[in-house]
Amino acid sequence: MNVFGNKVIRIDAKEKANGVSKYAADYYFPNMLYAEVVHANISHGILEDIDTEEAEKIPGVIKIATYKDVPGINKFGHVVEDMPFLVPIGEKVRFEGDAIALIAAESPEIAKIAKKLIKIKVKELPGVFSIEEAIEDKILIHDKSNIGFKRKIKRGNLEKAFNDADLTISKQFETGYQEHAYLETQGIVTNFSTNLELYVSAQCPFYVQKDVAKILNLDLKDINVIQTETGGGFGGKEDVPSYITAKAALLSYLTKRPVKLIYSREMDILETSKRHPSKSYYKVAFKKDGTILGVKSKIYLDMGAYSTLSPIVMYRTMVHACGAYSVDNVDVEVLGVYTNKVPCGAFRGFGSPQVLLAIESIMDLAAKKLNIDPYEIRVKNALEIGKKTSTGHLLKESVGAKKTLKKVYIASNYEKLKREIQEFNEKNLYKKRGLGWAHIFYGVSLGAGGQFLDGATAVVNIQSDGTITVMIGNTEMGQGAKTTIAIIISEILGQDVSKIRVLQPQTLFIQDSGPTVASRTTVFSGNAVKIAAEKLKENIISFLSSYLKVQKEEILFKDGYVYFKNKKFSFDEIAKLCNDNNVKLSETGWYKTPKLNFDHENGIGEAYITYSYATQLSMVEVDLLTGKIELKKVWVCHDIGKVINLEGAIGQVHGGIIQGMGYVLFEEIKQKNGKILTKNFNNYLIPTIKDIPNEFNVDFVEDEFSQGPFGAKGLGEPSLMSAPPSIFNAVSNAIKKALNKIPISIKDIITEKE
Ligand code: MTE
Ligand code: MOS
C-alpha cells in the first residue's frame, strides 16, 4: 500500500478552514424569496381554522401556502405514510412542530411579521407524553394502538437457558433523547428555472428528490437535488431534509421564484428528529464461568408523533440488543410507540446505543456477581469465526472482536491501572475513579431489510492535465468520505490525493446510490470508485503497452508517476498523452450488496453483510461532593477491516467518543406537556473542548472483509457506540452503584448523607 495508512491532508480542509466552502445559507439567487414556517405549537388537537387574511395584507408577502396548495400527496413516511406535510383543517395536530402554513416573502423580516399574524385555531386534546402513557392506549394518537410497530428475535430455548442458569440478572434501563447538534442547521435554497434546482444540506439527496416529487406531483427528471457542503448530519439529515426541502420547494413551485429556508437553532430543535428515548427490561442467564446462556428483553422506543424511520431504527435495535456476543437462546422484542412529541429517527448508532448500554451494564453486573474480571467475561462471550450472533448469523470471516479486546487490555496496562485506581480511591475520600469496559459490534450496510437500496455508483473522470474528478452517489457530511474516496483512487492510479476533486452529488447526474447512512460509504462508494479506477487503469495500460511496445505488467502507477522499464513519466504527462490519443478517460463503477438470507418473522439469519467490532476502556473521576464527572482517559480499538484514511479514522473515533460522552453525561431535552423547553445550546448542554479527555489512545485491527474495498468495513457510527456503555460503566464503577439511567444526573452521584 502506498497511500493507505499515511498522513493525508483532508481534501476539503483548506476550503473549509478558509470559509470558502458553500453551505446552503451561502446560496443567493436573483429575485429570491425568504420562507417561514408556521408550526402548530400544540401537542395534540384538531386543527379547526387557519386565518391568513391579516398576514396576506402585509406588503412583501408573496405567498402563504397551506395544505390546499399541495399538488401531490400531502403525506410523508418511509415505512407508513402517517405524517402530514401540511396539516389539513379537520385533521389532527400530533406534536408542537407540525407544519400548518408556509410563508414566502421579499425579506426574512417580512416573513417573520407575517408569521405572527397568521392565526390558527386548534381544539386541544389530552396528550400522551411518556412510553407508559402510550402503552396504556387510553388516548390514541393515530387511529390504531399507540404501539405502532413490533420486531422480534425468537431463537433457541430460553426456558431451558434460565433453568440451567447459575446466575440470572434482571434490570430495567432508561435512556433519554439526544439532539444531533450539527453546527449547520437544516437549510435549503431553491432555484426555479425550467425545472427545480434544490440546494440542500443533506445526507440523502435521493430521498429529497423522491419526496419532493411526491409532494409536488413532478417527475424525478424535473428535480435536481444538489447536495451542498453539509455541516454535520449524524443521522439528523437522513430523512429530515425531505420535510424541510418540500416546504421551500412548494413555495418555489407556487411562486416560480427562488426560495430560501434556513432553520434557526430553535426551530431546528423544536421540529426535527432526535435519538429515541427508550425503556428496556432485560433478563439474562449466565453460567458460573460467565457464559451467557440466554437473553430475554423487551425494549420500548419512543417514536414521537410519527413513525418516520423508526421501524428501520428498531431493526438495528433488535439485532444489537444482545451486544457483541454469541447468544443461542434469545427472546428480544422491540416496540415502537407513538407519543405527542417530536418524531425520533436516525442518530449515529441508529437505535443501538440504547441497548448496548443495557447489555454492557449487565455484563459488568454479572462479572461482579461471578467474581470474574469485566475484561474476562467479555473475552469469554466474544464473537469469533464459526460462532453465531444473536440472530443466528454464522460468522465466516473478518471477526477481529477478540483482537480489539486484547489490544485495549495491553495498551491500557490494565492490571497495573486497576491497582493505581484502587490506590487513588483509598487515598481520596471525595474523589473516586472508575474504569469501564465496553465491547460492541456494528452491522455494516442497510441490512437484510434494506437491500433494495444497498447499491452505489461512482463516475471517475481523468482530465487532460491529469487531475481527477469524481462524483459518488453518497455524501460528505464531515465524516471525511471525500478524502477516503480520493485515497482509494490515489492508491490505484498513483495520482496525488491533492489532485483529486470529489464533487458534490447532483441527483440528475448520478444514479441513486441509496442513503448515506449505516456507515456504508466506505464499503459501497469505496467499492464503486475502486471498480471505476481499475477500469481507467486498464484503459491507460492497454494504450501504453501498445503505444510504447512494453508488457502490461511492466507498467506501474505510484507516487504521481507512471513507471515502465527504467523510465518514469508524471501521471499528468500520461493523461495528456492518453487524451491526445483518444483513450477513454471516464469510467463508472457500480457495487451492490451480496444477498442476505433473513427470516423477518423470527428475526433469524444474516442481518448485515458484515460487522465492525470495538472495545473501549474509559477512566473517569467523579467528585462526590459536586457530582462532577470527568472523563480522563480512553483506550479504544476498532476492527474496521482496513484503515484507508488513518487521520480521518482517528478523527472519527475522537468525535464519536465525545458525542457519546455527551449522551451519557450532559445532554437532556426537557419538555413540558410534550413541548421542548431546551431549544438552544444555552440550556441544551453539549460537551465543549474543556470537557474532552486529555488522553485518547486509539488503535485499529485490520481483519479484512473480503467484500470490502481492500478489506475495509465501516467506522462512522461504531466510533460513537463504544463510548456510552464504557463511560456509564466507569461511573457506576467509581461510585460503586450500578446506574440504570442516562443522562446520569447529579442526584445519582450525590446520595444524601449524614
Ligand atoms: N462524522 C461527522 N464529522 N459528521 C457527521 O455528520 N455522521 C455519522 C458518522 N460520522 C457524521 C460523522 C453517521 S450517523 C454516519 S451514518 C456516518 O458518519 C456516515 O458516513 P460513512 O458512511 O462515511 O461512515
Ligand atoms: Mo447514520 S444514523 O446511519 O446517518
Bound molecules: ligand MTE, dioxothiomolybdenum(VI) ion
The major beta sheet can be summarized as: 7 strands, mixed
CATH topology of the largest domain: Aldehyde Oxidoreductase, domain 4
- Tertiary shape: globular
Strand content: 25-35%
Integer tally of domains:
3
Our Rg estimate from Cα atoms comes to: 27 Å
Strand arrangement, major sheet: 3-7-1-14-11-12-13
Please report the number of helical segments. Answer: 20
The mean pLDDT is 97
The end-to-end distance, rounded to whole angstroms, is 64 Å
Derived structural class: alpha+beta
Q: So what's the CATH class of the largest domain?
A: Alpha Beta
**Helix-residue proportion:** 25-40%
Oligomeric description of these chains? single chain
GO molecular function, one term: iron ion binding
Pfam families: Ald_Xan_dh_C, MoCoBD_1, MoCoBD_2
Keywords: Molybdenum, Oxidoreductase
InterPro entries: Ald_Oxase/Xan_DH_a/b, Ald_Oxase/Xan_DH_a/b_sf, Ald_Oxase/xanthine_DH-like, AldOxase/xan_DH_MoCoBD1, AldOxase/xan_DH_MoCoBD2, AldOxase/xan_DH_Mopterin-bd_sf
List the helices and strands and how they pair.
Layout (H helix, E strand, L loop, with lengths): L12 H5 L15 E7 L5 E7 L1 H4 L4 E5 L9 E2 L6 E2 L7 E2 L5 E7 L2 H10 L1 E6 L6 H6 L10 E9 L2 H7 L2 E9 L11 E6 L3 E5 L4 H12 L6 E5 L12 H16 L3 E4 L2 H7 L6 E9 L5 E13 L5 H11 L8 E10 L14 H18 L3 H8 L19 H11 L2 H14 L3 E14 L10 E8 L5 E5 L8 H13 L6 E3 L18 H28 L7 E3 L2 E4 L2 E4 H10 L5 E7 L5 E2 L4 E2 L4 E14 L5 E11 L6 H20 L5 E2 L2 E2 L18 E7 L16 H4 L1 H13 L5 E2 L3 H4 L5
Parallel strand pairs: 1-14, 10-33, 12-13, 16-17, 20-21, 29-32
Antiparallel strand pairs: 1-7, 2-6, 2-8, 3-7, 4-5, 9-17, 10-15, 11-12, 11-14, 15-16, 18-28, 19-20, 19-25, 22-23, 23-24, 26-27, 28-29, 30-31
Bound molecules: ligand MTE and dioxothiomolybdenum(VI) ion.
Dioxothiomolybdenum(VI) ion (MOS) binds next to loops.
